[in-house]
Amino acid sequence: MDYTKLTFTNNFVFCKVLENNLELCQELLELILGVHIQKVELADKEKVLDLTPDGKSVRLDIYVEDHLGTVYNIEMQVAAKRNLPKRSRYYQGMIDLNSIEKGARYNSLKRSYVIFICMFDPFEKNLPIYTFSNRCRELLDLELGDETTKVFVNPYGDTRELSAGIDAFFKYLKEEIAQSDFTRKLYIEVEKARENKEWRREYMAWISELEESKEEARAEGWEEGRQEGRQEGSVQGREQTAIRMLKDNMPISKIILYSSLSESRILELQQNLNNDPTVLADQIPR
Questions:
Q1: Among residues 88, 107, 213, 221, which one has the fewest Cβ atoms lying within 10 Å of its Cβ?
Q2: Using CA atoms, how far apart are residues 51 and 152, in angstroms rounded to an integer?
Q3: How many angstroms separate the first and last alpha carbons of the chain?
């Protein structure tokens, strides 16, 4: 991807712009939440919460704290994902564990907001903003009082009852049209990010690392498939592994290594796959 064409909705640019201009980050929070915030600062520069030896790490996009100690986590979500509610729950839990010292009282937990800016409608109800807090089902006026809020922003929702400021922000997200003071400032910062050579190098290194991680994950999956095939003596299982690797455009030499099939059989699978991309191993004659 051409770095000079990245937009604010790109995760890398999103993080760089808001981390390096906390006043803009503060304005964004005030716009979305409709509150006044005196000042924000980075709550954790590393943004990686890994609190259990064998647990899953979570990398937060924007993780800031205001003058009252309230914590805000802002995430950019471009690709539609069905697990956002559970993801928000997981992020909330990690933030809580990160903010309380061992042996501390529960009342030391900080008020927190987990905010997802989605480039799609996460609940398909046409609302521009979905705000969730814990309430009693039998008495909706009764809040649990755990001081946690989850917000999902949908720029494609109905904005007729929203302020002109947030409507302008939504237009900027969708079309990169800057029509307000806030979005014009965003536009300027994104342009600066595109011209930053150091960030460009960092982005390319990040992309390279991401691709390597994907490659390692695929290799682990292939290795697991190979081991299972060996244990079960399943030729079909090894051929399915070969087909997955062919679909990933992996070289024949690697496919031979991970599938333990002959080159002639792999070429035969490849030919049949080219004829029908949906083909399975048990449908290919030997």
A1: 107
A2: 26
A3: 41
CA dihedral 193, 151, 162, 77 (to 10 degrees): 40
Distance CA 74, CA 148 (A): 14
Per-residue pLDDT tens for 85-103? 999 999 998 888 887 766 6
Confidence of residue 79 (pLDDT cuts 50, 70, 90): confident
3-state secondary structure the chain: CCHHHCCCCCHHHHHHHHHHCHHHHHHHHHHHHCCCCCCEEECCCCCEECCCCCCCCEECCEEEEECCCCEEEEEEECCCCCCHHHHHHHHHHHHHHHHCCCCCCHHHCCCEEEEEEECCCCCCCCCCEEEEECECCCCCCCECCCCEEEEEECCCCCCCCCCHHHHHHHHHHHHCCCCCHHHHHHHHHHHHHHHCHHHHHHHHHHHHHHHHHHHHHHHHHHHHHHHHHHHHCCHHHHHHHHHHHHHCCCCHHHHHHHHCCCHHHHHHHHHHHHHCCCCCHHHCCC
Question: What's the rounded Cα separation, in Å, for the pair 244 and 259?
Answer: 10
Measured distance CA(175)–CA(169) in Å, rounded = 10
Q: How many other CB atoms sit within 10 Å of the CB of residue 4?
A: 10
CA dihedral 28, 31, 33, 35 (to 10 degrees): 110
Residue of 113, 108, 63, 52 lying closest to 88 (CA atoms):
113
Bridge partners for 260 per DSSP:
none
pLDDT in tens, 93-134: 888 888 776 667 778 889 999 999 999 999 999 999 999 999
Is residue 186 within 8 Å of residue 8, measured between CB atoms?
yes
